[in-house]
Every structure is written in structure tokens, then in C-alpha cells.
Specification:
Layout (H helix, E strand, L loop, with lengths): L1 H11 L1 H55 L3 H29 L3 H21 L11 H17 L13 H10 L2 H21 L1 H8 L6 H31 L14 E5 L2 E4 H28 L4 H24 L6 H27 L1
Antiparallel strand pairs: 1-2
Helix pairs in contact: 1-7, 2-3, 2-6, 2-9, 3-4, 4-5, 6-9, 6-10, 7-10, 9-10, 10-11, 10-12
Length: about 350
């Protein structure tokens, strides 16, 4: 049965088409990330420039007020404010300079100082947020993130990285997306539909002593194809990174331990996130291809349309979950619940499909 599936795919020519299309898909994702990286850099630059300008303006205004006032007590208060605000403005300027000069160490250390000094200034001088807009949760997360990156000796990267191995995470998010997996599963089943319409599948099923095991052979074959195409995609991405990869800061290194923000001050190493995406995508693909095999058994029958409708709803729900939850779906109990749901759904679909083929 496994050899029959292999012969059917090779005869259709789809295998070679997929081997060519998958590296092209990796290339398109690389180009998209290249554009997004430039946009992220400009956004970061604009945010730091705005912060720097606002702090400089606030420091100048305090200086002018100190010169104009004649009240000694008021002047003493303004002196205290200016002495606390000026180091903060200098730190923000240093961080902006680090970004301009692509100095990773200066950017991260100055960023730490900005967070610490902002927190202290708001607590002691500006509790009413008249001069500094400060989000405790956001800056606490940023401080923890900067320190983790420095501790690991890595370079700061934005979400759309073109550096090895950070880019693999972005590639896997696309390659293991529910909609992408459904398209691949449909492509594989188109070759089977050809055999179905020729009558080859019915003839083979009638001559098999254990036809109920055929869905298991298909499942193993599809899993092999998916893993092979994943390897081709990662290899193509690796070649692109060797010749065209670039980092946000030059002369810095990436690593599999790069901390990805999950929520708040909860982080996940890059290698852990990648493996979790692969495992989730693998199980999701097996569920999709099993449902398609089940629907094929009842093609042009009401049951087949019902199964196809369930598949469409499942894909839509999965796509919505991965889009809205993001990294949250890979952390803690949410990930366990997600995997458990996929395993249970897969087992039910496999058993029902085996029963349908055994009749």
C-alpha cells in the first residue's frame, strides 16, 4: 500500500513540482521578511527619535523655567528635576546613537538605563506622567528582554529577522500554518482522486485482505512527504541565509537560545519554539490528510460533504487560534491542551477512516 502511494505520487509529477515550489516559497518568505525588517527598523528608529526629542524638549523647558524663576525653593525643586531628567535624556540619546551606528552593546545597555531611569523618575519626580509616559508592564518586559540578550551574548533582533537561526522561526510559522498545511494535503489527495476516478482505488481496496489499514499507509506516506518537504524548505532557507542573510546590528551573532517573548517577562528559547511549531504542524497535517482520506471514501455522497465541511471549520478555527494566540499557544497549559486536542481529533479521524475503508 505504501509503495502504491509512492508510485501514484511519482506518476503524477506532483512530487517534483513540490520540490521546486517549496524552496521558492522559502524565497518569497525571505523577501517578505526583508521588507518587514526594514519597516520594523524604521518604526524602531521613529519611536526612539520621538522619545529622545520629547526628553530633550522637557529638559530644555525645565532649564528655561529654572533660569526664569526667582523663588529659591522652586529653583531647588527644578534643579532636582533637571538633575534626574538630564541623565535619562542622555541615555535615550545614547540608545538612538547605538541604533544609528549599529552598536549592539551601546543600544542594549543604553536601553537598560532608559528603562531604569524612567521608572525612577516617574516614581520620585513625575507620578502624574506629565513629562514621561511610562508603562510599567512594557518597560519591565523590555528590561528583562535586553538583559537576557546580553547575558546570552547575542545581538538584538526584531520579529522579522533575516539572521541565522532566527529566520527559521519565521519560516516555520508560515510552513506550519493550518492553511498552508491544508493546501499541501489537498495537493497530495488530488493524485488519489485521479486514481479514484479511474477506478484503481476501488480495485485495489477490493483485493486487499486488510483494506482498513490503507489509511495508516497513507498517513505514514504523507508524514514522510511532509517531513521531506520541511527539510527541503529549511535547506533552501539555510542557503539564502548564507548568501543574503543580514542582522539588525552588524558584527553580532545569533543563536538557538535567543529569547522570544511569550508574555510579560516569560521568554522561550528559539530552539524550543521551533520544535514546538514543528510538532504542532506535524500533528495538524496528519489530522487534515486523514479527514481528506475519510471524505474521499464518501465522495459525491452526503457524508463526504459533511466531512469536508468539518474540515473547513477545523482549518478556520485553527488558523484563527494561531493568528490570535501566537506565542501564547506554544506556552504552558495552552500548548499541552492544543497538542492533546490534535491527538484526540487525529485518533478519532483515523479510527473512523479505517472503519470506512474496511467496509
Amino acid at each position: 500500500m505504501y509503495r502504491w502511494e509512492w508510485h501514484s505520487l511519482r506518476r503524477s509529477g506532483l512530487l517534483w513540482a513540490l520540490i521546486v515550489l517549496v524552496p521558492l516559497l522559502a524565497g518569497l518568505i525571505f523577501i517578505k521578511n526583508q521588507t518587514d525588517q526594514q519597516a520594523d527598523r524604521q518604526l524602531l528608529l521613529a519611536r526612539l527619535t520621538t522619545t529622545n526629542s520629547a526628553l530633550k524638549t522637557a529638559a530644555l523647558q525645565l532649564g528655561e523655567r529654572r533660569k526664569e524663576t526667582t523663588n529659591k525653593q522652586q529653583k531647588r525643586i527644578l534643579n532636582t528635576q533637571l538633575n534626574r531628567l538630564q541623565p535619562l535624556a542622555d541615555a535615550a540619546d545614547d540608545q538612538l546613537t547605538g541604533l544609528y551606528n549599529e552598536d549592539n552593546t551601546q543600544f542594549l545597555k543604553s536601553g537598560e538605563r532608559v528603562v531604569v531611569l524612567s521608572r525612577n523618575y516617574r516614581r520620585d519626580i513625575d507620578p502624574g506622567r506629565e513629562q514621561i509616559v511610562f508603562s510599567e508592564a512594557r518597560y519591565t518586559q523590555q528590561l528583562a528582554w535586553y538583559r537576557r540578550i546580553q547575558k546570552a551574548g547575542l545581538g538584538f533582533e526584531n520579529a522579522h529577522s533575516l539572521r541565522y537561526p532566527n529566520f527559521f522561526f519565521n519560516l516555520l510559522q508560515w510552513f506550519c500554518a493550518p492553511a498552508t498545511l491544508l493546501v499541501l494535503a489537498i495537493c497530495l489527495h488530488l493524485t488519489r482522486l485521479q486514481d479514484h476516478w479511474r477506478g484503481s482505488n476501488d480495485l485495489l481496496r477490493q483485493n486487499l485482505s486488510r483494506a482498513g489499514r490503507w489509511p495508516l499507509a497513507r498517513l505514514g506516506f504523507d508524514a514522510t512527504v511532509w517531513l521531506g518537504l520541511l527539510g527541503v524548505a529549511l535547506f533552501g532557507a539555510g542557503v539564502l541565509l548564507v548568501f543574503a542573510g543580514q542582522s539588525l546590528f552588524s558584527d553580532t551573532q545569533g543563536g538557538w537560545q535567543y529569547p522570544l517573548i511569550v508574555m510579560g517577562t516569560t521568554f522561550m528559547p528559539l530552539i524550543t519554539a521551533c520544535w514546538r511549531i514543528i510538532l504542532s504542524g506535524f500533528l495538524l497535517f496528519l489530522v487534515w490528510t486523514t479527514l481528506l482520506s475519510w471524505a474521499e471514501r464518501y465522495i459525491r455522497q452526503p457524508a463526504g460533504y459533511v466531512i469536508a465541511g468539518v474540515l473547513v471549520l477545523a482549518v478556520g478555527l485553527s488558523q484563527w487560534l494561531t493568528a490570535t494566540q501566537g506565542m501564547l499557544l506554544l506556552s504552558g497549559w495552552r500548548y499541552i491542551a492544543w497538542l492533546g486536542g490534535l491527538v484526540i481529533a487525529g485518533l478519532i479521524a483515523v479510527l473512523l477512516t479505517m472503519r470506512a475503508y474496511a467496509r
